[in-house]
Amino acid sequence: MVWIVLSSLLLIIGIGAGVVFANAETSSGKVGSKGFTAAFGVAAILWLAVSFFFSVHIVDTRNVGVVKTLGSITGQVGEGVQLTWPWQTVEEWHIRVQVIEPDTRCSNGTPACMDAGSIDIQDVYINGALNIEVDTKDVQELARNVGQGYSGYDCPQPPLPGREESDCKLPGR
Fold first, then answer.
1. Where are the alpha helices (DSSP H) in 58-147?
2. Could you tell me where the DSSP H helices lie in the chain?
3. Which among 9, 69, 120, 128 could bridge 74 via Cys, Cβ 3.0 to 4.6 Å?
């Protein structure tokens, strides 16, 4: 959307400057069509630069870029430097493994633990973790039906000291 507005402004400025320069006079006479051509050429070069700027997207490692055209999902791109049309945007989606541990504490004080009892009345302590990984082919469907907050988990960017990049914790539950 921003590209469309900037393109329109550059077109208006280019035509306006061209008309002004075409009617401008110097000591040697009227500038004429050379002024119009020069002003319009500068506007065209600026337009190409702006278009290139809006066409280049960098998708981080272990992410997928969901391509949107005027707000609707039209495709996806992988990690790295990606080129799209200037009127398209790329929204990054994390596809790395997310580790979810229960926010509980056992009676012996062990964090991320669940208490249980056996049939012969012995204490059983269970440490559990759920690993979630999004398949790249499902990202567009996830974007359409669930939205960016699909996990609901806290994934620090960049990871906190002493934590793996794949550590994502369930906040306060």
1. 139-145
2. 2-22, 33-55, 139-145
3. 69
Enumerate the domain spans of the chain.
1-54
State yes or no: pLDDT of 152 exceeds 60: no
| CB neighbourhood size of 172 (10 A) | 6
User: 47: how many CB neighbours lie within 10 A of its CB?
Assistant: 19
pTM of the predicted protein model? 0.60
Rounded to whole angstroms, the Cα distance separating 26 from 162 reads: 69
- Confidence category of residue 140, pLDDT binned at 50, 70, 90: confident
Give 57-82 pLDDT, tens digit per residue: 999 988 899 999 988 889 999 999 99
Question: Do residues 3 and 87 lie in contact, with contact meaning Cβ atoms separated by under 8 Å?
Answer: yes
Structure tokens at 150: 């699909």
